[in-house]
Structure formats: C-alpha cells, structure tokens
Amino acid sequence: MRGFFKIFFASLVAMIVFFLVVFFLFMAFIGTLANKKQPQIASRSVLTINLNQVYHEQAKESPLSDFTSNDELDVPGLYDLVRLIEKAADDKNIAGIYLEADMNPNGFATSNEIRTALSTFKKSGKFIIAYGELMTQKSYYVASVADSVFVNPSGMFQWTGFSANIAFLKGTLDKLDIHPQVFYAGKFKSATEPLRMEKMSEANRLQTSEWLGGINQYFLSEIAGSRHLDTVALKQLADKNTIQEPADAVTYKLLDGVRYDDEIKDGLKSKLGLGKYDKLEFVSVNKYYKAGGYKKFTGDKIALIYAEGSIVDGKGGNNTIASDDYLQLIRKARLDKSIKAIVLRVNSGGGSTLASEVIWRELALAKKEKPVVVSFGDVAASGGYYISCAADSIFADPLTITGSIGVFSIIPDMSAFFKNKLGITFDQVKTSPYADNPSVTRGFTDEEKKMMQKGIDNIYTQFKQRVAEGRKKDTAYIESIAQGRVWLGTAALQNGLVDRFGGLNEAVKAAASMAKLNTYRVKEFPELPSFLEKLLGSAASVDYDAALEKELGATNFKWYQEMREVKQMTQQPQARIPFQIEIN
Which of the 8 DSSP states describes residue 256? Predict the structure, then answer.
C-alpha cells in the first residue's frame, strides 16, 4: 500500500509540474503574440493597392492573423483604405502608389470612393502607376486617375459599355408547379418580377435604363476629365467595339502603353532612383493597415455604425443587419454621453419591413439627442433607405443605388408541386377559418388575397410617411418618386432623397461640424474582437460566408446569397430591391 501511495504522489507531482510548465509556456506565447510588433515601412516604399481584393465596409480580420507573420490575412475596410491613402500622402516613407488593376469585384460607389481618395493623393505630388493584365471597365475607371496606366501586351482591356442582366425564374417555377402568390405596392417595385414574369416590365426597363445609363455617363465624364479626352468619342469607341486589344487602347489614348511586368518594375526603379539590382520596397495596403497610425485616439467620440447586408429580424450573423443587434448598437450610442454624434454607414438593398421599422425608430430617437448623419455605400435602397430617412443629413455617392420605396410579400402555393411532383397531399382540421393562413400547402382565397394586399398597402403608406417626415416633404411628392422606383445617386440628389455627395470621410467630418467638435475620434461599431477574444473564440465564430466567398468568387457568392434570401422573402413583407442584377 505504501508503494502505491509513493507512485501515486510522484505521478501527481509530475502532472502538476507538467501543467505548470505548459501554463507558463502558454502565457509566454500569449505575451509574445500580444506584443507582436507592427510592420515597419522602409524608406522609398511603394504602396500597392490590389483592386481585385474586396473591400467591405468594415475591416475583415482573420483569427489567425495574430498567430503568423503573414500580414495579408487582414483586409482593411473601405473607410480604412481611404484613410490609409490619406496617410500615405503625408508619409515620408511612401514614395508613391502602385495599383494592381485587373477584375475589381467592388461596387460602383466603392470604386468611385477609392478613385476620389486617389485623386486627392495625387495633390501630394507623389506618383500613381496602374498596371493590369486583364483590365475590366470598373478597374480602368479607378486606374484612369493614375499618372500612367499600362496593360500587358497580350492581356485584355475592356471597353464595351455596360449591360444589366436579370435572371427570371418563372419558367422554372411553372415546370415545378409552384405558383408564387405575390402582393406588392409600387408599379416600379420589380423585386418580384423574376418570379412572376419572363422578362422586364416596361416600368422596370425604364428605371434600369435610366440608372445604368447614368452610371455609364458618369464613367465617361470622369474618365474623359482624367485622360483629357472627349466623352462623345469615348462613347463611340464602345458603340463600335473599336478597342479589340490593349494596343488599340493606346492608339486612342485610353492607355499610356503596353508593358510586361518586368518593364513596369524597371520603370518604378528608375523613378525611385534605384539600380537594376536594387530591391523595390513594396508594401501592400493590407500590411500598411497593420502598421496603423491613421486613426485618432483623442478628443470627443463620434460613433460610426456599419450597416452592411440584408435587413433581418431578431439576432443576425455575418453580413446581416439584424434588428435586435442594431437596436442595441444605436441605443448604446444614443445613451452614451461621451458620444457626441452618430454616423450610420448603410450598404444594403433592404429586407424585412418590421426590422427596418425597429431600426428606424431607434435612429429617430437618437436624432432627438445628438446629430445623426447617414452615409450611403454601393446600395442604400428599399429597407436600406427606410432605416436612413430619419437622419439629419444623408450623404451618397453619385453612383449609389438608392430609393426603391415600395413593399412586397410572397407566399408560394406549392400544393400542385407536392401533389404532382412528389405525390404528397394534405388534409386538415381547424377551429377557425383562417387558422392555417398563410400556408404553402394551398392557395389563398379571394378574401385572404384582399387582406394580404391591404396589409402591404398599409406598410407602404407607413414607409412613405416615414420618408416624408424625415425629408420634410409632402407625402404626395414622396409618392411621385416612390412606387418602388430605383434611383442613381445623381438623380437622388436632384429629387431630394439625399442631401449631398461625399464618401464616409465627408460624412464623419459633417457630423463633427454639426456637433461643434474641434477634435474628435471615431468609435466604430460593431466592435472588432480583441486579441484575447479572437484567441478564445468567444467573439469570432467561423466565418463561413467569407470562406464561401473566397471559394466561389465575389460574383458567384452574390448569387448564392440571393438564393439564400429567397426563403427570407417568403416569411413576411419585404422592402427590398430586385433580385441580383449582373452588370457587365
């Protein structure tokens, strides 16, 4: 027995020692990570901005970034990118910017905001060089602000104008014996057209032609200004499909030349006064983001709340604007006396009308206590506009898609599908005539259809009243620009849906001015997880959407999101813009 206790206690002491060693090693490891040094920027560095990278509204930080020396895992948000470009203009270690301009999956307004920041950077006297191998029109739009733009001699340069393609599902639903029962308010409310039509309605074709034409005209005008060309001549080049290869673009002065990658790098070395065998110091914008130094940490606080994605009820996940979550975020900013103003950045095509009303209410309350400014991104339409209309001031980009003040609801009748395709039939007993309403296993009665349409009309009336109150307009005027109609930012400024053009930077400065702040710092919400939270996994669950987006690509991921949102659209009334529109 004595031998057993001797072995037992010896083992116990060994285990304790082992766990103590592991604990201290672990704490040392944590300390090393926590004290990880920021990247150092070498003299005469060239800041590289990859336009093929997606810049969301808020930074995307990987849980692995603190555990590796790879500085490319974290991607700055759009506002971060704008401030980093602003910082680079004054950074003595940054000699210029190198744009990697290829596919550019970012939205039109995002691209314009980046381009505007680059245009301001040029005033510093530093250079911007753009190069691509497969340069699309959207990439070229950003790149055209550069001092010189080059494309690989065997690459691709796109100059064909724009087209908007919408997929219509009615034929598929007919084959499946699924009958969408659609209720909507607003003759331009085209979100349900793919389910009930085989092509665009005339109203939808009109509004799409106008906003797409507006994008094209703005592109031509801005590019013509940067390249000292004529907009009519640029339009003719697209109409006649004159640009067949990069050399043609050089001939018509859209490009400054065709070059190979090594020639571009040799040119940069020459510009920097480097020898043939000297190293070019490139610093990616992702690494520059890790270096920090572009945020202020003193002064009164302005709350910047990012609202990106679909508007949904209750609690949400990544890429959603959930009513419970955003009610709490706005309320926190409203009740915090150290926060002197609120800026809401909206990039959303809408969603649940109930969730939109909940968020609108909280923002309207905040407006009574402190200045509230809204900044629109690529899209701020339907529910995205609903949650914004109570603000003191609304900023938009000329290329923002907005408006779409209208409502719809879809309850599919799948009884024929179940019976004819699956052999399933249904029977029931109920205590009241409407106990099973709504149901996908039977069609609506005439009386139920009337009730559904009345409910949609009531929500639409409330939506218009919210807009009229916020914009200080007559409801009759709001009706004339509502009806579900989609507007480009340029038109929205003219009809009074927005107040000013400008990006998030300008919106924050306006909020500071309204709050009479001389010095201020921006507090961003939702807050990014801390180092310890990322380590323990308490705040950062697996971002499956990010993984899917990386695997599928930005365009295909948007289609996946659209299909996923069909289920949400059948649950309750929606204030949402049309299905995914593919713009080429």
Answer: S
Cβ burial of 378 (10 Å; 0-12, 13-18, 19+) is buried
For residue 179, how far is the Cα from the chain centroid? 33
Rounded to an integer, what distance in angstroms lies between the CA atom of residue 254 and that of residue 250?
Answer: 6
Whether 81 and 116 have beta carbons less than 8 Å apart is answered as no
Q: Would you state the structure tokens that stand for residue 200, as one six-digit string?
A: 């665009």
d(CA 431, CA 38): 68
Give the tokens for residue 330: 């706005």
| CA gap 572, 313 in Å, rounded | 10
- The answer to whether the CB of 506 falls within 8 A of the CB of 500 is yes
- Of the pLDDT bands very low, low, confident and very high (cuts 50, 70, 90), residue 454 is very high
CA dist., res. 542 & res. 489, Å (int): 36
Of residues 45, 382, 393, 404, which has the active-site annotation?
382
Tokens of 402: 């907005």
**Which two structure tokens, joined as six digits, stand for 171?**
């034929």
Taking 3-state DSSP, the helix, strand and coil percentages for the chain, each rounded to the nearest 5, stand at 45, 20, 35
Q: Provide the terminal-to-terminal Cα distance of the chain, rounded to the nearest Å.
A: 83
Residue with structure tokens 């969301």?
56
pTM of the model: 0.87
Q: Is the Cβ–Cβ distance between 314 and 351 less than 8 Å?
A: no
Instruction: Reply yes or no on whether the pLDDT at 28 is more than 60.
Output: no
Distance CA 389, CA 402 (A): 11
The tokens describing 375, both together, are: 């900044």
Active site (annotated) includes residue 375 = no
Active-site pick, 126, 138, 189, 287: 189
Tens of pLDDT, residues 410-431: 889 999 999 999 999 999 899 9
Angle between the N-to-C axes of helices 544-552 and 554-569, in degrees from 0 to 180, rounded to the nearest 10: 130
The answer to whether the CB of 139 falls within 8 A of the CB of 103 is yes
Angle CA 80–85–88, to nearest 5: 120
E strand or H helix at 491, and its extent?
A: helix 489-495
- Polymer length of the chain: 584
Residues 6+ positions from 581 with CB-CB distance below 8 Å: 164, 165, 166, 208
**382 carries an active-site annotation:** yes
